[in-house]
């Protein structure tokens, strides 16, 4: 019903009308102000993650891969391939050590096992180099095969799982006992491109099969695959994996392919059901989850950005912000004490005379320039 305030005139009506008009105008003003405040208030908490430091490391222009952080010493381990496993000290902004023999063996990065004061450099020549986290003293390299990408530690079974080079019918995972580093088993999986992995801290170990759009759930003590979860169509080319053990959720950053866009995807670790998926930047190679902050981060080297998500519950997630980084920032690690995130990159070029990983990007850098390798620190 449309109200009319001026159709009847009576004694005192003008004063009453004026008073009602003032009340209406006041109510409208309050409503407008409230609406403006609602529109100005974001529906989520913007953290304001940003680059805090950038430190250039002198070098020859080698490739690079994984980053890891020892939160006890705050040392950052940089897989700088033919320039070795470099130990970066954020307090001095300097590389304080190159782990012995990791330059000649070409280090892809390190897995850190603080409970045994142990670090392992994963070397491209098929060796691993054990070293002490406390002293950075290295032991003799151990030959494990002809081609090694990376390794993952399962604290429950005390097994180190090594991603070896693929054969014609799949990939052989080599399992070593920790801390003895003696081989205790091998497991053949159909994937020819196994990538990131993480343990739930109970009995399950989740490994991405990038080429098959699957995640293997593995019992590393028994040395067998107990389940295989499909990630498509939400997640194409699953690459990096981390586990939220408290919620029994597996977090995956996916590169995407064909019609499947790059995504952050969440699996129920028990059933394999996909409970959430959202688009992220291209060229991801790393994912970090922090339970204290309730935040998930994906590093995306082709898009040169870092996506940040909030965890509201096992099946509830919100995209918070997308931080601009630099081209080639695809791997990262967090200091669990300071909450600083460390990433690496270098100025690169796609040399057409060399092999280019076109599956990642048509112009994916395969050549890097001397004295451009940089450690980037992000925080809020």
From TrEMBL:
InterPro entries: Haem_d1_sf, Host-pathogen_enzymatic-act, WD40/YVTN_repeat-like_dom_sf. The keyword Phosphoprotein does not apply. This is YncE family protein. Keywords: Plasmid. It comes from Rhizobium sp. ZPR3. PANTHER family: DIHYDRO-HEME D1 DEHYDROGENASE (PTHR47197:SF3), PROTEIN NIRF (PTHR47197).
């Amino acid at each position: 019903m449309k109200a009319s305030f001026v159709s009847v005139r009576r004694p005192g009506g003008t004063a009453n009308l004026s008073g009602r008009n003032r009340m209406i105008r006041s109510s409208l003003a309050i409503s407008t102000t409230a609406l403006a405040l609602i529109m100005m208030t974001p529906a989520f908490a913007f953290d304001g993650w940003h680059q805090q430091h950038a430190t250039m490391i002198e070098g020859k222009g080698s490739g690079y891969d994984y980053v890891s952080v020892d939160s006890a010493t705050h040392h950052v381990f940089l897989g700088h391939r033919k320039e070795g496993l470099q130990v970066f000290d954020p307090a001095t902004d300097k590389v304080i050590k190159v782990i012995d023999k990791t330059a000649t063996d070409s280090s892809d990065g390190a897995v850190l096992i603080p409970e045994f004061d142990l670090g392992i450099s994963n070397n491209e020549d098929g060796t691993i180099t054990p070293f002490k986290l406390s002293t950075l003293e290295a032991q003799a390299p151990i030959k494990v095969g002809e081609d090694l990408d990376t390794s993952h530690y399962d604290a429950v079974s005390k097994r180190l799982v090594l991603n070896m080079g693929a054969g014609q019918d799949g990939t052989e995972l080599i399992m070593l006992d920790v801390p003895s580093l003696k081989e205790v088993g091998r497991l053949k999986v159909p994937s020819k491109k196994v990538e990131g992995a993480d343990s739930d801290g109970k009995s399950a170990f989740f490994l991405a099969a990038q080429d098959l759009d699957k995640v293997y759930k593995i019992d590393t003590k028994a040395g067998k695959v107990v389940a295989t979860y499909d990630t498509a169509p939400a997640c194409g080319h699953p690459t990096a994996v981390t586990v939220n053990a408290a919620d029994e959720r597996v977090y995956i950053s996916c590169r995407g392919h064909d019609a499947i866009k790059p995504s952050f995807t969440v699996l129920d670790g028990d059933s394999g059901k996909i409970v959430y998926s959202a688009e992220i930047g291209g060229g991801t190679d790393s994912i970090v989850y922090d339970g204290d902050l309730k935040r998930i981060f994906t590093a995306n080297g082709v898009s040169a950005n870092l996506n940040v998500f909030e965890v509201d519950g096992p099946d509830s997630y919100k995209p918070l912000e997308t931080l601009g980084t630099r081209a080639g920032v695809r791997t990262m690690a967090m200091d669990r004490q300071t909450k600083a995130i460390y990433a690496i990159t270098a100025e690169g070029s796609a040399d057409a005379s060399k092999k280019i990983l076109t599956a990642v990007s048509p112009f994916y850098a395969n050549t890097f320039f001397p004295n451009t390798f940089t450690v980037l620190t992000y925080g809020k």
